[in-house]
Amino acid sequence: MTSLGELERAVMNVLWEADRDVTAREVQDQLADRDLATTTVLTVLGRLERKQLVQRIRDGRAHHYRPVAGREDHVAELMTDALDDASDRGAALARFLGSMTEEERSRLRDLLG
């Protein structure tokens, strides 16, 4: 999975935070501080759809968008991809664990059982 560009990440955050499917116009409204054209938002949504991160649903003449998976699923896949790129997974994991807070390490120990 490729990482997201800054604008793609902003659009995905809007979709992840929505409690329903949203239109491109609603995404644009949520990102109003960026002064984006509707065509720009549609282009980004199209790229995200091609990356299989977003599903487009036709509703009459309008289209609605929803994330294919949750934010945590996306982050987990990025972490797995990063580990796959490491020549020494153990060393990469050790460095990652070294960057974690004690609270995060404790949570990880709980998850591992």
What does this structure look like?
The chain is elongated. The relative contact order is 0.12. β1 (54-59) and β2 form a beta hairpin. With 113 residues, it is mainly alpha-helical. 61% of the residues lie in helices and 11% in strands. The chain contains six helices and two strands. The chain has a two-stranded antiparallel ribbon. The mean pLDDT is 94. The two termini are 29 Å apart. The protein has helices at residues 6-17, 24-30, 38-50, 71-85, 89-99, 102-112, and strands at residues 54-59, 62-67.
Short characterization:
By secondary structure, this protein is mostly helical. Helices cover 61% and strands 11% of the residues.
SSE layout and pairing:
Layout: H1 6-17, H2 24-30, H3 38-50, E1 54-59, E2 62-67, H4 71-85, H5 89-99, H6 102-112
Antiparallel strand pairs: 1-2
Helix pairs in contact: 1-3, 2-3
Salient structural properties:
mainly alpha; two-stranded antiparallel ribbon; 113 residues; 2 strands
Largest pleated sheet: 2 strands, antiparallel
Number of helices: 6
Mean pLDDT: 94
Q: What's the arrangement of strands in the largest beta sheet?
A: 1-2
* Fraction of residues in helix: 55-70%
Q: Which residues sit in consecutive blocks of at least 5 with pLDDT less than 50?
A: none
Number of strands: 2
Strand % is: 5-15%
Derived structural class = mainly alpha
Oligomer: single chain
Taking all Cα atoms into account, the compactness measure Rg is 18 Å
Provide the succession of SSEs: HHHEEHHH
Shape: elongated
The CA-CA distance between the termini, in Å, is 29 Å
